[in-house]
Amino acid sequence: QSSDEEYDEPNGKFNFGDDSNEAQSDAEDDDEESDDDKVLKSNMSWKENLAQKAREAYLDRHTNTDNLMRLVYGVFSVQSKRKLQDDEQFAESDDENDESEELGGMFRVMSSQQKSIHKEKQSRDAEESCLFEEYGGETRDWLREENKMLIKNCFVTGKWRASEDAEELLRLDEMSDADSEVYGDFEDLETGEKHSATKPPADDNTKPQEEEKGSLKRPISRVEESNLTKTELMAKKMKLKAQFDANYDNKDEGRITGDHEYYEELKAEANKQSALNKEEFANLDNDLRIQIEGHRAGLYVRIGFKNVPCEFVENFDPTYPLLVGGLNMSEENIGYVNCKVKKHRWYKKILKTADPLIISLGWRRFQTMPIYAKIEDDMKHRYLKYTPNHVTCSMTFWGPITPQNTGFLAVQTVQHNTDEMRRLGFRIAATGCVTEVDKSTQILKKLKLVGTPYKIYKKSAFIKGMFTSDLEVAKFEGAKVKTVSGIRGQIKKANNKIAGSFRATFEDKILLSDIVFCRTWFRVDVPKFYAPVTSLLLSHELKNQWQGMKTVGQLKREKNIRNEANADSAYTPIKRESKQFRPLVIPKALQNALPYKDKPKLGPINSRPSFDSTRVAVIQSPHEQKIESMLKMIRTNYKAKKERDRADTEK
């Protein structure tokens, strides 16, 4: 070899002289210049197609955003489903080519098979213990299909039991009561044999028509019928029943006529439109479908609320369920609501008018002060102080406007107070429904005005004490009045001599002892009190201790206040004087005309007083009584001696 040639051992090549070295240096300079150009171009490449890149990033972000519905029920977007399928195909092809993956050319990522082997080795080498194994750092990927199948049956999209299947329940609802009883599980009480539920015999279109006609034409003998099982007999009865219903209900070859024809046409048109919408929206993305069709039943939605109190957020309890409902525009107003209500038969107390009551009506729960009334025959709402025990009555309160026939229930308190519940016995105080919504009330209360007569004529009298001024009398001119004895009258004109007195005419002459009544009616105003129950704004400890307005009875019990007894209402012993009747006086002319047996014989014969009746009774002293008795003995002895002497002289 010449001296110009040099051998390069690492590269295994010969270097020839100075010319080759110069060429190599020129090539290196060109490479450096090209590298600099590439760096400049790469630094400026991010500015190219910025609008296109932003659009693609926006669409990718909205398409691939994971939400609760996608994580629980799977992918429902068409684009994301296609992308997921492409990713799975790419992953399968990548696994077939090389199960392992290298990071940076130095580290190799473990495959799923290697992970399972490593986990089994750790479980074999672990110490035996009766305690549960600690949860490892590995978590399940719930987006994988095999992990989804583990919890699929926990949701409505999974496979349910036959008795809980929606199609089965809908089929049972469409069946009649007799059909649903036939296909339920039952037990023969005589033999003790249990029969499980069987499906109703369906029409088998694949069966040959000749065999079906032959079975209908050929009757079953009694021996064959006795050998049939209960299930076969029931199937035979159901088949006959279905044939009878088909012949009876659809006489005109299955065509529906009459009033039901219009309804069936509307139903068929609605079903056709629903099927058409379902077919058209099937290939659309879910976001676009929601914008066109709206949120369907079963979708998860996010709701934003305005003007919410800060206490609701501060005292929010995720374990306390909340029900969200919507109101119509007309239900956001406040006015008078007329209801039909009945006190619950298990509630011990009767309800008093104007006592605060908590009402759960529709989506609202509020406290109000209702007024109870009874509708008379002339459609007059008569005021009631208390609710009747076993009869419905009318109730009017100031509250939210609610559609008619909306049911509600009422309670006196929502507190979890053991003593109060033990005293009441039952929480629900009344139930009812809304009957009418109005901006005014027509509740009337009966008022009795009482007066006494002070001057009486033949069929007229002057009454006082009923009114206080002549103006009130002028307002009630022509009103009807009535006495306690039932004599009817009418108010005529005011009397100027006594303030509030008036002249009234009657059907008959009245007495000074009569009391005159005038029945009138006056309007009762319903209190405008409406307080929503704000228990959701309280903390968890105070949520069940919400207390609104208290009743008068509760305040009196707390402060130990007793009503002052009215002296006129107290029971006193009744003292009645015995009535002295006048003696019956019969004229002498009539006595002479009467027979002797009918003539009065009770009177004294001599009307003159006797001498003994006019004598004054003398009360003797003990000494005088002894003297009187001694003189009486002497007189008696003297009379006896005279009698003996007279008898002797006669002999």
TrEMBL record:
Residues 1-46, 188-223 are annotated as: Disordered. Residues 191-223 have a biased composition (Basic and acidic residues). It comes from the Eukaryota. This is Ribosome biogenesis protein BMS1 like. Residues 19-36 have a biased composition (Acidic residues). Pfam families: RIBIOP_C. One of its GO terms (cellular component) is 90S preribosome. Residues 222-524 form the Ribosome biogenesis protein BMS1/TSR1 C-terminal domain. One of its GO terms (biological process) is endonucleolytic cleavage of tricistronic rRNA transcript (SSU-rRNA, 5.8S rRNA, LSU-rRNA). GO terms for molecular function: GTP binding; GTPase activity; U3 snoRNA binding. InterPro entries: Bms1/Tsr1, BMS1_TSR1_C.
